[in-house]
Amino acid sequence: MGTVAIFGAGVMGETLLSGLLRGGRSADDLVITERRAERAAELTEKYGVRALENVEAAKVADTLVLVVKPQDIRGLLAEIRDHVAQDNLVVCIAAGITTGTVETALADGRAVVRVMPNTPALVDQGMAAVSAGRHVSPAQLEEAKALLAATGKVAEVPEYLQDAVTAISGSGPAYIFYVVEAMIEAGVVLGMPRTMATELVVQTLYGAATMMRETGQHPTVLREQVTSPGGTTAAALRELDDHKVRAAFITAMEAAAKRSAELSGA
Ligand SMILES: NC(=O)C1=CN([C@@H]2O[C@H](COP(=O)(O)OP(=O)(O)OC[C@H]3O[C@@H](n4cnc5c(N)ncnc54)[C@H](O)[C@@H]3O)[C@@H](O)[C@H]2O)C=CC1
Ligand SMILES: O=C(O)[C@@H]1CCC=N1
């Protein structure tokens, strides 16, 4: 994999950087670029990696990981275009940005992999989906997967599904945190101290997630096991159905996928 350069060291850039270091990669093989000087200094200090200008980083890198906002991708690609070599691998993490967009902005024949990761990568429980562009060799695709595998699970998906991936696992952690916030709020309404409600909700989420993964049972079966006839859960779920929560999730995730598709023209 040689030297990996992370372009844009914000939330996701730091998440990937720290994951690669936890995965055993040497700080000497990692460089970052960051427009905000104070942020670059913070990460240099914290992780012992070099911070370079974009062009310098492109020159030394074997693998270039683009982690700027979709709106900043085109400017970044224009800056580094002439320094991306034929045998480099370019991994683009920006929501909505297609491999075709990146390929067009670079010189002919460059290897581009599109990836949608998520923030649980920070605790090595990430879910990343990868799609290869037109000029990626099987070995380069494996390399991209290995890069992401340092921070969690990796799936390969056809690129047309990346907008759906973004709506599901990319943005997904935010929906879960939103539900957790609502459940904590409900605990407070029921008279429970906030810290206690938080502990109960977070452990319930962790337990439920672990059950889904470890039993392999469908969520419907697990939900039915909790729902006693005429009981408390049935009363609560009826309210959620009356408030169209399931339909709201579908509409919300359709909106996320639509926005991802729109960002391709960012
Ligand atoms: N935050 C998330 O949960 C996820 C984010 N993504 C994608 O990752 C990308 C980054 O997102 P975040 O880390 O959340 O954003 P962020 O705003 O925290 O980080 C982006 C960083 O790039 C820097 N930057 C911008 N233009 C630059 C340039 N030309 N050269 C060097 N640095 C530059 C900014 O100063 C900033 O620190 C986005 O494209 C987003 O779609 C993908 C999956 C999940
Ligand atoms: O909200 C966003 O646009 C990014 C992409 C997926 C998660 N965060």
UniProtKB/TrEMBL annotation:
Domain spans labelled Pyrroline-5-carboxylate reductase catalytic N-terminal: 3-96
Occurrences of domain Pyrroline-5-carboxylate reductase dimerisation (ranges): 160-263
Catalytic activity: L-proline + NAD(+) = (S)-1-pyrroline-5-carboxylate + NADH + 2 H(+); L-proline + NADP(+) = (S)-1-pyrroline-5-carboxylate + NADPH + 2 H(+)
Subcellular location: Cytoplasm
Pathway(s) of this molecule: Amino-acid biosynthesis; L-proline biosynthesis; L-proline from L-glutamate 5-semialdehyde: step 1/1
EC number: 1.5.1.2
SUPFAM superfamilies for the chain: 6-phosphogluconate dehydrogenase C-terminal domain-like (SSF48179), NAD(P)-binding Rossmann-fold domains (SSF51735)
Gene3D superfamilies documented for this protein: NAD(P)-binding Rossmann-like Domain, ProC C-terminal domain-like
Highest taxon of source: Bacteria
Keyword Protein biosynthesis tagged: no
Keywords: Amino-acid biosynthesis, Cytoplasm, NADP, Oxidoreductase, Proline biosynthesis
Family, as annotated: Belongs to the pyrroline-5-carboxylate reductase family.
Functional summary from the UniProt entry: Catalyzes the reduction of 1-pyrroline-5-carboxylate (PCA) to L-proline.
Name of protein: Pyrroline-5-carboxylate reductase
UniProt organism field: Phycicoccus elongatus Lp2
